[in-house]
Hints:
5-stranded mixed β-sheet, 9 helices
Amino acid sequence: MTKRSPSASPEFSVREFFARFPNEDACLEHIMAVRFGGTRFTCPKCGVVDATFHKLANRRTYSCSHCGHHVNPTAGTILHDTRTPLVSWFYAMYLFCTTRHGVSGKELQRQLGVTYKTAYRIGQQIRDLTMKAQSFDALLAGHVELDEAYVGGRRSGGKRGRGAPGKTIVMGLAERGGNMKAVVIPNVKKDTLRDVVLDNVEAGSVVSTDELYSYNLLTGDGFLHGAVKHGRKEYSHYDYRSGETFHVNTVEGFWRLFKASVRSTHVQISAKHMQRYLSEFTFRANHRARVNGMFDLLVGAL
């Protein structure tokens, strides 16, 4: 009888994490399971089907019991030459999956007991994994909300606002009942927004936006487009002809959480790294109901 894994439940507590990954060997075994399906598979050298691979002592390597061929489960990944224990890497990924407001470099430094330089590098590489794990996501379809936002920067005197210098323009796309995407954009011109929509939204979908003039192009591209006029204090409206309710509340809720997280956890994010943080937050939003599945997706993205 197969032993039930702690990851079978939707919750993944700290106690369960360390019970599942108490040491280096447990982490390596999990990577082998994700990359090769376990320790029994067809040997790439001798061709023996269902060959058994056993771990070599004091090495991150498994050896074929028939021909001695070596397989390194971390080869070609960010873990290949790392001196940081694999348990620390796995715990950092666990923290990224269970947090709501993100994990700062200083928090990783405290939790992992490493230098800030190492903690910052681990954080950025995990964010790259969230980008990789979402690189093959399907186009958004059905009813999709679009909304742009301005992140960072301050006006003189400490006042905030869209006119503040140093802000990064970002655009969010949310499929109702489905996934969320967010990208950095250089401006809010028609051509820029049109390219993002065509690259990420299935043709013929219903699209909700605010009253930004640049979105007017969407009807001509075959989308059923409805806009809410925030300037008139309108935040939702029902269209009787199409039977659709138009609003961008889902995306705006995402931006509220993201901006609050930047202020409280990260303080500031440069435009250079903004896409990494957007991918981290959309990854968490898309898989928030399955912490364990989120963790395994990160390991799979190695």
